[in-house]
Amino acid sequence: MTCPYCGKPMDEGVIQSRDGLYWTAQARPVAALPLGGRERIDLTCGQTGGLFSGHKAAAFRCRECKKIVLQYRD
Ligand SMILES: [Zn+2]
User: Fold this and answer.
1) Which domain holds residue 52?
2) How many angstroms separate the alpha carbon of residue 16 from the centre of ligand 1?
3) Can you give the pLDDT at residue 56?
4) Domain assignment present for 38
5) Measured between alpha carbons, how far is residue 27 from residues 10, 18, 19, 32, 74 in Å?
6) Distance of CA 31 from the midpoint of ligand 1 (Å)
7) Number of folded domains in the chain?
8) According to the model, what pLDDT value does residue 67 have?
9) How far, in Å, from the CA of 65 to the mean position of ligand 1?
10) How far is ligand 1, taken at its centre, from the CA of residue 61, in Å?
């Protein structure tokens, strides 16, 4: 993937978390995140890495801009 900010090649990798990854419009108590809400997006797209890898989302990093870009689905 090419960085949308500077146009240089990005490094492919993953973002991992033990209990899921979510984008929300506003910060919420962490305990309430899995309960839903209209403005909640599961960034893992259902991807789990198994018992010892937790939840993961493919992501691209730009070393130049210090940006991380990832794709999500509705
Ligand atoms: Zn960049």
Assistant:
1) 11-70
2) 22
3) 87
4) yes
5) 29, 19, 16, 10, 20
6) 34
7) 1
8) 97
9) 4
10) 8
Structural domain contains residue 17:
yes
Identify whether 5 is part of a domain. Answer: no
Q: What residues have CB less than 8 Å from 32, skipping those under 6 apart?
A: none
Angle ∠(17,19,21) on CA atoms, nearest 5: 60
Q: Ligand 1 centroid vs 37 CA: distance in angstroms?
A: 32
What is the CA(48)–ligand 1 centre distance, in A? 28
**In this structure, are residues 25 and 10 in contact, taking their beta carbons and an 8 Å threshold?**
no
**pLDDT tens track, the chain, 74 positions:** 999 999 999 999 999 888 778 888 888 776 665 565 667 788 876 666 666 667 888 999 999 999 999 988 77
- pLDDT on residue 22: 83
Domain-embedded: residue 42: yes
